[in-house]
Amino acid sequence: MAAPRFALAALVVMLAVITLSEGMRGSGPKKCCSSFSKKWVHKDSVVNYIRTSQRCPKRAVILRTVEEKTLCVNPTAPWVKQLMSYLDAKSARVAETSNL
Length: 100
Known about the structure:
Number of strands: 3
Number of domains: 1
CATH class: Mainly Beta
InterPro entries: Chemokine_b/g/d, Chemokine_IL8-like_dom, Interleukin_8-like_sf
Largest sheet: 3 strands, antiparallel
GO molecular function: chemokine activity
Subcellular location: Secreted
Oligomer: single chain
Radius of gyration: 23 Å
Number of helices: 2
Signal peptide: 1-23
Protein name: Chemokine interleukin-8-like domain-containing protein
Shape: elongated
């Protein structure tokens, strides 16, 4: 009689562990990029950027333009690094003036 109870308890514990571990993983990243845009984008055309999740297979930066379009770009490209620095400095200036 003890063996069936032990087997049932072990099964319940195993199912609980699987359920908890799957729940902790989440649903995955919201946006990943499979390829990079080859075209250069002028800094005045970009509103902001986000970095893709570390769980994406390819590291990327997603640019949002004034026209509400999104572009996946290579974060190691020199022009992308300069653009991100420009946008970071621009948002820092806006934050400084809004706190006055």
